Fold arsenite-transporting ATPase.
Amino acid sequence: MTRVILVSGKGGVGKTTVSAATAVAAAKKGYRTLVMSFDIAHSLSDSFDLDRKLFDFNEGLPQEVAPNLEVQEIDIQHELRRQWSEVYDYMSVLLSSTGVSDMVAEEAAILPGTEDVISLMYLNKYVKEGRYDFIVVDCPPTGESLRFVNITSTLQWYIRRRFNVDRTLVKFARPLATKLTNYDLPEDTYFAALERLFGQIQGIESLLTDANHTTVRLVSSAEKMVMRETQRAYLYFNMYGMTVDQVVVNRILPATRHLEQWNQAQTAYVEQIKDYFSPLPVARLPLFEQEVVGQERLGGLADKLFQNKDPTERYVSAPPYQFTKKQGGRYGLSIHMPGAGREEIVLDRQGDDLIVRVGSFRRHIMLPRSVVPLQAVDAVLEKGTLKIDFAHPR
């Protein structure tokens, strides 16, 4: 069973360094390890102090950098041309028809979310193949990380509700559109390519939300703004059904005479972080005297982070939400939502899905068949857990 850890955090807190160090520690313990970047601005090669040409030559495929350790920085354009040329070509032609240059059309043909889908496809593929024992994902900054988590449920919804309908409608509308307009609707090869893509990410949502396989580690710094963003990320990952099992507070300043006030402020924030995220383990990393690049220094950081413990260990395995059967044909749903206020939470139903909204983020939770005929009759927020009761309508 492949163990997956997603490392997320605000931009600039050192999540790439923590990702790389985690992978180095696992490889040293004999795990077949891959660390892969989901960030558009790849920096894993910089963290390992590797020549960028190695990855360009390898066309975005995994590159071995040490025994048991491979690194992957995905080349999105190459992947689109290699596997889904029908989709890429159609989008390029469509954009060219609007008057933009061919070069701009080729760049713009990479739609928002494409990077996320391709990255998730690779992750799903590696887990199904059992090629690695341990995969570390260096996520984009927090907001973009939540986007790629959300895209899994969005795609599942589209596959279930819209894909076959859209494919059939376009099939019948294509001849008419060709006669009446200059606008070409996509050929069926376009939908066939999408269908292949959907097939390659089938099951990814279950993988991401299964704490036996996948957990999230949040990297923060001891600063108020970063701490608040880390708290929001914790809330949203829980809302999407993913299990956060550790928080890493990076770059703690030494308690020297000149930095005493900074250190005191950081110590106070670390205590707040411990209180907020309890019972999650909170690890502290110092600000190192030298930039942490290259395997030797990454190994030194890993020693301080894990202190000889197994980096693949699961610190928390409880699911963020679960259904329970109650007396009288009622069901309950408990969703762990730390830090959310009752006034922020909006519940809605759409067919077989319960939609939970917090601010601009929303989560689709597919209801079990036994719960679908029921209505949500009560919802209370108790100690960071939203409890919803379902019962037969009267």
